Please model this.
Amino acid sequence: MAEHVVLFAGPMGSGKTTAIRSLSEIDVVSTEATNTDRVTADKETTTVALDYGEITIDDVTKVRLYGVPGQKRFDFMWSILAGRARGLLLLIHNDAPDSITLLLQYLDDFQELSARGAVVIGVTKTDVAERPSVADYSSALSVAFPERLIPVFTVDPRNAEEMRTLLLTLVASVEMRELLTPTAATENI
Ligand SMILES: Nc1nc2c(ncn2[C@@H]2O[C@H](COP(=O)(O)OP(=O)(O)O)[C@@H](O)[C@H]2O)c(=O)[nH]1
Ligand SMILES: [Mg+2]
Model:
């Protein structure tokens, strides 16, 4: 069975845990992990929340879904997951202060994966805050990344069908990249 690893990233409250729960066929495993790396983290311990779920698509493709906080807060886990991940699903809640800047910061946090893998953006909580619009996000992205087209969807993480559409878009993009760059797909395994 083909397998993909995708990361769900985004600020606290953007809907990562809810999205993975909506999509997963298994009971979602949610853990608190303690960062014992005191060299790069100046706090004694840093607690991060990690979610894990799985979904099978097309009967033959398993997608492992990992919900992670920002990269800078989990360097020790990042190195384990990043090598295997091929896709980044970034959720941003529309009611966050300066959500467009926040989105660009998260893309910067995950720049290694976003440069190498596929990226889609899900704008959540548009029922809470109507603006910015998808067009506002898309134009900010086209200025920051003029060489690529990053899809932006509005999505409610509580809605499994909407999440599925977003995930399938990401997986299609992951598979396209693997076809176009077959060596990149295997060199980090
Ligand atoms: N109204 C509304 N609530 C949402 C939406 N997305 C997530 N939530 C709620 O926001 C809260 C935080 O979501 P959660 O999945 O825990 O966010 P996480 O911190 O990224 O894991 C939960 O109570 C969700 O039900 C949305 O699009 N609209
Ligand atoms: Mg969470």
In short: The helical segments are 16-23, 75-82, 99-109, 111-116, 134-144, 160-180, 182-186.
